[in-house]
Amino acid sequence: MMRAIGVIRKSRQERISREEFEDLLRSAGYEILAIVEQVREEHPRYNIGPGKVEELKSLVKELKPDKVVFANKLTPSQAYNLWKELRVDIIDKWQLVLEIFEKRAHSKEAKLQVELANLQYELPLVKEAIRRIKMGDRAGFKGMGEYQVHQYFKHIRYRMGKIREELEKIKAERDIRRKKREEDGFVLVALAGYTNAGKSTLLNALTGENVEAKNQMFTTLDTTTRRFKLGGKLLLITDTVGFIDNLPPFIVEAFHSTLEEIVKADIIVLVLDSSEAWPEIRRKFFASLNVLRELKALERPMIIALNKIDKVTPEDAETKKMLLKEIADGRVNLVEVVKISAKNGILEELYTALEKALLKLPKFQFFEIVVKDPTQVGKILSLVYSVGDVLEVTYNGGEETTIKAYMQSGMIRELTKLGVEIKRLQIREEA
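^ that's the sequence the OP posted. Answer follows.
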């Protein structure tokens, strides 16, 4: 097991959770030798103050860690200056997150996304190495000489281009599948939220599947989509990569094709852990909102699901629900805040909120369907019920049947193939 010393610098601009940082270190497989903390504004040369660097130098000599890991983002210059002082590998929180991603990536797409994010992270470090070499500093990069550093820089640029091409092909294939799902009348529900909130467990609870779900950070890197039924309607639910506070643009960009499932979703279910203290829930809610804002997904209908209510009292869960509703109203297109336990199958509030959200989707409209073949009536009714609600059925002397329905407009193409006549009703009728 690799051994690490963690460093946390707290300031007005950066509020960092020590507990979360330690969870990240353990998730990456590190034994934590010590955590060094400092309260001060960022020092331009080292991030932490020079006095704290000396303290850290003594700890490194004493404990002999494999790495020193900063919870703060380091500039390339700061990383080099720290390495020259400490003579041990220096990484920051985002390189730590990428190490976890490397361990969790299974599919070709996830591996490509992680590689792209790693290369985007390394690019400014290599640029800094080239700058220092020109200034006469022979520190190099990963033990490379001047020529090797220049060649590696060219390799990074080339490889990033190739990865983006491969990810575009995968994205195109996903777009085709998504379009087919829309034509088949499916509604897409995306599970989003902070890492380790219980999204995969919720997917399993809704669909009866057995997708890997563990009590650890970033279990899910590969997008998983499954079918489930809601009151007879067929829906698709997608599990997505978890968020984390201040998710940097290079990770969002690398995983954009995966996160796009959230953007394209009809409904977003934002999952939060109700067993945490309110300040943590609030912090993670706003961290999730920042990512959704960057993805331009805040206009989507959103259900906020307070998960793990089996771990709190009913009064505590209700208080947190009210507080969340208060801060969410006006910030998102809120459908409802619901209390659930994915582990124990307590999902009634979520089902009700999803039914409510479906009725508000633009793709749901009122139609009149005329079926001229009596033998097709049962099949047509079954199809309509799978993507909407039948409002009225009129049998006209056994020759033809008129069905008034509120349904997903994507089903028009499928129904037309069966030889029925479909007319969109201009006046919205009440069910």
